[in-house]
Amino acid sequence: MPLFSNLQSDLEHRAAQGLLRRRRALESAQGARVVVVEGKSCLSFCSNDYLGLANHPRVIAAMRRGAERYGAGSGASHLVSGHFAAHEELENALAAFARKPAALLFSTGYLANFGAVQALVGRDDTIFADRLNHASLNDAMLLSRAEVKRYRHNDPAHLEQLLATASRGRKLVITDAVFSMDGDLAPLPELLALCERYDAWLLVDDAHGFGVLGREGRGALAHFNLDSPRIIYMATLGKAAGVAGAFVAAESIVIETLIQQARSYIYTTASPPALAAATLESLALLREEEGRRERLQKLIAQLHTSLSGLPWTLMPSTTPIQPLLIGENEAAVTLSEALRERGIWVPAIRPPTVPQGTARLRISLSAAHEEADVARLVEMLREMI
């Protein structure tokens, strides 16, 4: 049938460009070492479980207790009958953790960004977006029907030029805090200053900073010591927190607006209350175990020191995301496969996730890694020069 032959042609074209993706199923929990379905154990540098909490005994025990009390599923959306006491407790705890008046849980970060952007701006408003923002922010701004103006990556001067030309409706600046493919930080103080000057909101997607940056892992706002009612803060719970879901924290009036108007909140079944119980325990661990973040920083420093002299460029990043720039798609895939054959799993990231000619190995470090694990990765990379 022509419909299917067209799909086949598209897939073959993608494969020829070195862009075909495949999944690998795990038979073990997340950790520094994982077991894939074919039974092979790998040293993993591709998980966003930055603090090693996804398999923490206290988090697992809390989820078990939550399931015993509330069952396996929520049964309905939050606004029907799916909002449990555990959800309420977690939202209050997340608001306090983020130092914001209120917070709202979403099932995923994608849904959180969709809901927040769509509820706050529309056809008569303007969105200003960093060119390297995550796909969820890009899709959210397009679906909002607002006018979109994209500024050069981490370029406040260009953003100001665009803000100065906008006169109608509400203004919303949206940015990642830590950019997921480069590992660099947005200049949040400068962006907030512009929002103050031009009367705009600042939506910060802190998916990769929450739990990692700032005192007690409170995220990018704590890292920069920022506090403003203009900031709408989104963070995910499936990375450093080790569980799943996301939340938006903001002024109470903003959160109430999301409850009433965010379609991705209103029309989605609530996440399991047992997951909320597990996340509460994860938050406690974030506050208590500063040593995990200290260990992570030592591993980052070790990697930077050890990779000097390689033909590939380690992009500047002080976060667990350590991109090794390779260049061509095929070269990145070949290097990734060669590492996997040696029992080391590092993903090759290719367009359209990153710009053409910037394919890379995205090395993700975790507090679950040992110094010997990083040394092993570096040793294997040096063998492939």
Structural overview:
There is one protein chain. The protein is of the alpha/beta class and 385 residues long. The protein has 2 domains: 22-51 and 290-383, Aspartate Aminotransferase, domain 1, CATH 3.90.1150; 57-288, Aspartate Aminotransferase, domain 2 (3-Layer(aba) Sandwich), CATH 3.40.640.10. Helices cover 44% and strands 16% of the residues. The protein contains 15 helices and 14 strands. It has helices at 2-16, 57-70, 78-82, 85-98, 109-120, 135-143, 156-165, 188-198, 220-224, 252-261, 263-266, 273-288, 290-306, 329-341, 371-383; strands at 33-35, 41-44, 102-106, 126-130, 147-151, 171-176, 201-205, 231-236, 246-250, 313-314, 321-327, 344-345, 348-349, 359-364. It has a 7-stranded mixed β-sheet with strand order 3-9-8-7-6-4-5, sandwiched between helices. Helix 7 packs parallel to helix 8 (188-198). The protein is globular, with a radius of gyration of 21 Å. The relative contact order is 0.16. The mean pLDDT is 95.
Encode the helix/strand succession as letters. HEEHHHEHEHEHEHEHEEHHHHEEHEEEH
The CATH superfamily of the largest domain appears as: Type I PLP-dependent aspartate aminotransferase-like (Major domain)
Strand content: 15-25%
Major beta-sheet overview:
7 strands, mixed
Give the helix/strand class.
Answer: alpha/beta
pLDDT averaged residue by residue: 95
Distance between the termini: 47 Å
Rough outline: globular
* Rg: 21 Å
Question: Can you tell me the CATH topology of the largest domain?
Answer: Aspartate Aminotransferase, domain 2
Number of separate helices: 15
Q: Give the count of structural domains.
A: 2
The proportion of residues forming helix, as a percent range, comes to 40-55%
